[in-house]
Design goal:
Two copies of one chain form a homodimer.
Chain A: H1 11-19, H2 24-33, H3 39-43, H4 51-63, E1 67-71, E2 79-83, H5 85-88, H6 91-104, H7 111-123, H8 125-137
Antiparallel strand pairs in A: 1-2
Helix pairs in contact in A: 6-7, 7-8
């Protein structure tokens, strides 16, 4: 198991020991918002993660039970990754990152859609989270 | 200026381009919850950040206007760092990280205090955020 060294007794530091990385939360984004489940799909995301980085991050996430991995029933050569409750509980964190970015980033043609989404979050966050979770259940 | 390469047009990726790191959010934690303002105080935090890492992270944060830096009026040889609105707007993200960690980490003797804090957040998040902001104004 990849060793995670706990740097202090602080809960923010604890979270960052796992999540403080440019790539980890993109895997969750892909799983939560894009419903991606396969290595090749994560690899195909726009940010261009390297194969070895993706492999090591998925391994850590499985080992620490953020996600599970199993052979796909229909595509025997492929592994399917699924979120656990621990992984799904990162949804509010991702939404806050999105809200923050919507204030400070420039997203071109996607700006209006992003601002509408953030507006729906500000109006009823728990409903949006319930919808995301329901959408994941269909997977 | 340290170059930040935008990896995609995704708001989550945008945020991680700045914040996806084991150290950056600890600086915000120190400033927001501990009211730290000086290099030596950040350096003294329990996680033991290295001097060169702290220097580079503070430089990036100033360049990208998450924080400002000025000579301290009373301690002429020292620089004082302050949060901008852009930096303060990370408070909800840090709170979500804390909430997530409270569910999955073991914080020993600090567990009860953490769970009480999370409970107050769940009951009235905006009030807690207002209190944090008011507390920062006193600095």
């Amino acid at each position: 198991m990849r060793s995670i060294i706990k740097r202090s007794n602080c809960p923010i530091s604890y979270g960052l020991d796992f999540l403080g990385d440019k790539w980890i939360l993109l895997i969750f984004r892909d799983m939560i918002f894009e419903k991606k489940s396969y290595f090749k799909d994560f690899l195909g995301s726009a940010e261009g993660v390297a194969t070895n980085i993706l492999t090591s991050r998925l391994k850590m996430l499985v080992e620490h039970e953020f996600i599970t991995v199993e052979q796909d029933m229909n595509r025997k050569t492929m592994k399917k990754y699924r979120l656990t409750k621990k992984g799904k509980d990162l949804i509010p964190l991702l939404l806050e990152l999105m809200i923050w970015s919507s204030k400070y980033g420039d997203f071109g043609l996607e700006t209006v859609a992003l601002l509408n989404y953030v507006e729906s979050l500000n109006q009823n966050r728990s409903k949006v989270i319930q919808q995301i979770l329901a959408n994941l259940e269909d997977n």
